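Hi P.,

Sorry for the delay on this. The queue was packed all week, but I finally got your sequence through. Input first:
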Amino acid sequence: MSSQNLSQSPVPPAGGGEPRKPRVAVVFGGRSSEHGVSVVTAGAVLNAIDREKYDVLPIGITTDGRWALTADAPERMGITDRSMPSVEQLAEGAEGSVVLPLDPSSREVVYSEPGSVPKALGEVDVVFPMLHGPYGEDGTLQGLLELSGTPYVGAGVLASAVGQDKEYMKRVFTSFGLPVGPYLVIRPREWESDPADARRRIVDFAADHGWPLFVKPARGGSSMGISKVDGFEDLDEAIEEARRHDPKFLVESLLRGREIECGVLEFEDGPRASLPAEIPPVTDHAYYDFEAKYIDSASGIVPAPLTPEETAEVQRLAVAAFEATSCEGIVRADFFLTDEGFVINEINTMPGFTPISMYPQMWEKSGVGYGELVDRLLQAALSRSTGLR
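Then the structure:
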């Protein structure tokens, strides 16, 4: 699926003068447990942005929430010796903070250090939020950018929030007639007020659907905090691990089938689906967990060996999920192909985005290369106004 090259319109500066290149703030890191994944992803995007077309401002959010001016150093943002990078490493010990304006009449970014006069860093035309998980991918950052009147890549406030919360995501899917697997939600007050009753409900769920079960944080990602539970004796440990990431957790039945993923990208005429990929069973892990995805770089099969009818159906369902959740720009939709057909597991509104991640791989095979993918997302964001839509 080839796509045309996008035209680039220079930005007229405030007060007149020569047009300038659009300025992109790449925001990454954050307070979630997916901090390191976000840094790796942002490094790939920084490396791919065409510097002849865009000016770039890297902004990292530390693990304690400080917005830091970081080095524009993609080569330092990869996985080293099985360890994830951090914003703290890239901020080089600087104590200053970056402040985005909340006044829509100005997009002037300011850098402030203790005991020093704040410095203006210039205007930002678009934000590429490479944050994963809570405090970034969940609608919080999107809300801040809406208040500031700054265009940004990807889903808006509602779609980001729904895409982060697996309970409400599944509720939306069900309301739009998309097939989902059996699941049970345990909310914080339910567990804290009566854990014995919550355990009983889980055991009843297992009696209906069988072991093993998956216990996972309701608002997490990158397979963090997920446990495969083979019996009641392992349940409490799995719940504790899930609640370490989110006080609300889900219990899901094992869906026996092939894992299929499909990318959705917004074009001028609407969202389109990529060729799908298949995630083959991993031999050294209990399931496709964090280490399999990011440390051991388990790869998928692109395109997935499906029949033409199966490919068309999973593409249709991926676009339907994109539309049902009011997404924009980018989504990766994850499915199981069971004996009864496709079942949607979840969507990711800011999927892994390194060149070896599944989303870019699927679009590469569909005719949209990595650099063009980044450019298309930026152009779509620049052409879209903030506010209700």
